[in-house]
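Deliverable D2.4 — example input (structure tokens):
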């Protein structure tokens, strides 16, 4: 094959790859909009489908014994989890039809509770610029939520 023929094949292949990338980007953009995804989601757990379910625009079509990867267990329609199948398709699945280790669900839920608690503590601190005029960079905690160490308590013997 001549050099010109090779160049044409490379250009054709490049254009096809570019077209595929645009298609993939469009699909990801639609998924983000449809399921309120941020792009930072990770697989929480995996499970096996116990009962087949028909798919539609938002629900995954699954056969019995298919493997799915759970992406989100909260902030979904009632009784649904957001999942991805082995082919990469994303959609809702009935939470009752997925066989998943219950201990891992408890751990996931506990991590969510712990992170919410940590966020509430972090939001109880305010910077000095927000409070009564300290120098920039100083940080104070609200007394109501701060945990005092034993040394901070003293007896007035006077």
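Example output (designed residues):
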């Amino acid at each position: 094959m001549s050099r010109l023929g090779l160049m044409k094949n490379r250009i054709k292949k490049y254009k096809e790859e570019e077209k595929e990338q645009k298609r993939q980007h469009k699909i990801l953009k639609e998924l983000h909009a449809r399921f309120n995804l941020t792009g930072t989601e990770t697989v929480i757990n995996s499970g096996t489908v116990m009962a087949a379910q028909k798919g539609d625009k938002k629900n995954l079509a699954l056969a019995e014994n298919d493997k799915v990867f759970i992406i989100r267990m909260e902030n979904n329609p009632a009784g649904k989890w957001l999942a991805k199948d082995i082919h990469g398709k994303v959609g809702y699945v009935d939470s009752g039809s997925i066989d998943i280790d219950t201990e891992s669900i408890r751990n996931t839920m506990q991590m969510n509770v712990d992170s919410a608690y940590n966020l509430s503590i972090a939001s109880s601190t305010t910077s000095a610029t927000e409070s009564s005029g300290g120098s920039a960079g100083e940080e104070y905690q609200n007394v109501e939520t701060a945990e005092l160490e034993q040394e901070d308590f003293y007896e007035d013997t006077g």
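Residues 22 and 139 are 47 Å apart (CA to CA).
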